[in-house]
Amino acid sequence: MQLKTFKYRLYPTSAQEKLLVQVLDVCRYWYNMCIEDRKVAWELEKRAVSKVEQEKTGIRYRASFPKAQAVFSQTMQVVCDDVDKAFKAFFDA
Question: Is there a contact between 79 and 30 (Cβ–Cβ < 8 Å)?
Fold first, then answer.
């Protein structure tokens, strides 16, 4: 079986580029916040934080920070999924 791949070059306008950078920044901050949340909860309370809990926190995060409203909620959920997968892979290994 042979897979084909395609590469597409994007040529965003300066406004689109600013929005893409903003989305990337928000997702990076959110990813790091999810990791920190899990770390602090374990160190202080010996409690595991679930993906569902973090998705609920993501709703409040988007409501609190105007820049985060540029990111779709599904994107925030994917970030939570990525953190959850990383933690599961780390602790199952």
Answer: yes
Burial of 75 (0-12, 13-18, 19+ CB in 10 A): middle
Distance CA 28, CA 6 (A): 26
Query: What is the pTM for the complete model shown?
Result: 0.85
Do residues 38 and 49 make contact, with C-beta atoms less than 8 angstroms apart?
yes
Whether 30 and 61 have beta carbons less than 8 Å apart is answered as yes
Residue 13 sits at φ, ψ, to 5 deg, of -70, 170
Question: Within 10 Å of residue 65's Cβ, how many Cβ atoms?
Answer: 14
Q: What is the pLDDT of residues 31-79, one digit of tens each?
A: 999 999 999 999 999 999 999 999 999 999 999 999 999 899 999 999 9
In which residue are the tokens 């892979």 written? 89
